[in-house]
Amino acid sequence: MIFNRNAPAQALYVHWPFCPYKCHFCPFVALAGHDSFMGQYHQALSDEIKIFSRSWRQTAPISTLFFGGGTPSTYPDELLSELFVTLRQSFIFEEKSEITIEVNPGTVRLPDQLILWKSLGINRLSIGVQSLKDDVLKSLNRNQRAADVLTLIEVAKDLFDNISIDLILGLPGVSSDEWKTLLDTVVTFPLKHISIYFLTVHEDTPLYFKVKKEQIILPPDEDMVELYHWSCAFLIAHGFEQYEMSNFARPGFSCKHNQAYWEHVPYKGFGLGACSFDGQARFENDKRLLPYIEHASLGSITTYSELLTERQLFTERLMLGLRCAKGLSLKSVGNLLDNNEDFEKFCAKISILKQESLLYETNGHLMLTARGLVVENQIIIRLL
Ligand SMILES: C[S@@+](CC[C@H](N)C(=O)[O-])C[C@H]1O[C@@H](n2cnc3c(N)ncnc32)[C@H](O)[C@@H]1O
Ligand code: SF4
Question: Is the pTM higher than 0.70?
Fold first, then answer.
């Protein structure tokens, strides 16, 4: 199966898998100790982009481009400039497209690299802060210091208006008071966006084995749920809007790229393990570095593709819609159900969840209540 050449994708993702270290909690396609492959990988990535753009019929300008990783802030300057030439020759971009790069504090040459990024058109930084406790990060193999974050933001604020940070809630060694102090500190930074992710212990990561052997004790779930609710209220009181379960933005600064994923519109990903969606089918690139490099110029790097059934589309739209502050449009999800009978059954389930104060409805949109947010998965299962 191939990506529909007429799919109206307006969001592009580029994956840069190289990292200066491998954090013990990380499940992503991220490689430490492989920097010698950067040149070859860049070439393969450029080939993949050129081959795709030759066969794809672009019908609307690109509105978001996201460099994710891995650690894209380690993309060598000359190669990144070259990639931008390829991207701009291959696609038409909206004049005000959102172009984001993920940045690890301590991996950036200040201010030169930021100046280059800005000149290339990058206009949004997504900084992986996670925590400001050096010892906690070090114990998870993340070589990053709070001082790196402060210096980066201090320099970046004069060049970039749109700065976002990622934080992880539930890291071992961070008390509730320390988490609150962290949020107290970050709201003083010149940020437009904050993402708060619950720590997930992914199988086969070093964190997973340490937790299994009880070498690491995680904070209790109930405490984290309470802290999550506290954090939502705290950020809202400090002028952020919660537009999705994990995402908070100053008015007008929600992340367009993430919204494309949540709205279930087509997007195209390039690079190792990158995913794409053409509106009907999902695709995943090879996650193995050498086969990816070898096969990119032949145009044969998709290792997984799946045509989604109406039922799967319904499930995904349900999951994505309920996480967003805008909520799930009952009309759009109703269109995916086979018949009136199914829709009536669905509405009956909604009524029960509303009575249990887990869901509420405004203007034809369904949303999770604060109680519903933390049992989201159970609600989805009950709605299916
Ligand atoms: C794809 S990662 C890459 C970003 C960048 N390399 C960095 O680490 O700052 C994006 C974000 O995922 C989050 N993340 C990574 N592993 C996680 C885990 N096990 N649980 C929750 N969030 C995680 C972190 O907040 C990270 O900033
Ligand atoms: S730096 Fe980011 S992508 Fe790399 S290992 Fe750590 S969390 Fe994963």
Answer: yes
Q: Given ligand 1 and candidates 22, 100, 102, which is best to mutate, with the most ligand atoms within 8 Å of its CB?
A: 102
Q: How far apart are CA 35 and CA 29, in angstroms?
A: 14
Residue 282 domain-assigned (yes or no): no
Please tell me the total count of domains within the chain. 2
Nearest protein CA to atom 2 of ligand 2, as residue: 70
Do residues 88 and 227 both lie within one domain? yes
Residue 82 lies in a domain: yes
Residue 300 lies in a domain: no
Same domain, 346 and 245: no
Asked which of 262, 297, 331 is the last residue of a domain, the reply is: 262
The answer as to whether 6 is a domain residue is: no
**Domain end residue (candidates: 242, 262, 282):** 262
Cα gap 146→144, rounded to integer Å: 7
What residues have CB less than 8 Å from 94, skipping those under 6 apart? 10, 61, 62, 63
Q: Is 269 helix (H, G, I), strand (E, B) or coil?
A: strand
pLDDT tens column, 134-168 = 999 999 999 999 999 999 999 999 999 999 999 99
Tell me the residue range of the domain where 365 lies: 310-383
- Which residues are registered as beta bridge partners of 67? 14, 101
CA of 117 to the centre of ligand 1 (A): 21
Is 41 found in the same domain as 123?
Answer: yes
Asked whether residue 112 falls in the same domain as residue 170, the answer is yes
Ligand 2 atom index nearest CA of 27: 8
Helix/strand/coil for 193: strand
- d(CA 182, CA 241) in angstroms, rounded, equals 19
In the predicted model, what is the mean pLDDT of residues 352-375? 87
Q: Which two tokens stand for residue 202?
A: 């992914």
For 219-252, the pLDDT digits (tens) are 999 999 999 999 999 999 999 999 998 999 999 9
**pLDDT of amino acid 313:** 87
Per residue in 28-43, pLDDT (tens digit) is 999 999 999 999 999 9
CATH number of domain containing 375:
1.10.10
The secondary structure of 203-258 as a DSSP string is TTSHHHHHHHTTSS-PPPHHHHHHHHHHHHHHHHHTT-EEEETTEEESTT---HHH
